[in-house]
Amino acid sequence: xxxxxxRDQHTETYHYDxxxxxIPPEHWTRIVDALQPxxxxxxxxxxxxxxxxxITANDGRTMHLxxxxxxxxxxxxxxxxxxxRGGKVEQLRQVLYEAQxxxxxxxxxxx
Length: 111
What we know:
alpha+beta
């Protein structure tokens, strides 16, 4: 699992060219849990990009999630342009920042 977070934890500014990082396995469950419960959202709104998440399955398939911040407590994300509401924005932000602090950088040529 790899990620890129757009929002700087300390300055709360957005930088869309921030480096990717590899998420340590001990953080995977917490990140997936932070997106739950989720349901498909057919009524889209303008959301700010929180980051990107790549999940590689055991069979080698990669799923690309776009993570969003909303103006509500409820978070949002998309997979292959299908949009979902789920989890809590603040909880997702926190687990991503913790994973980033425990992570290693990813080769920029990889993505």
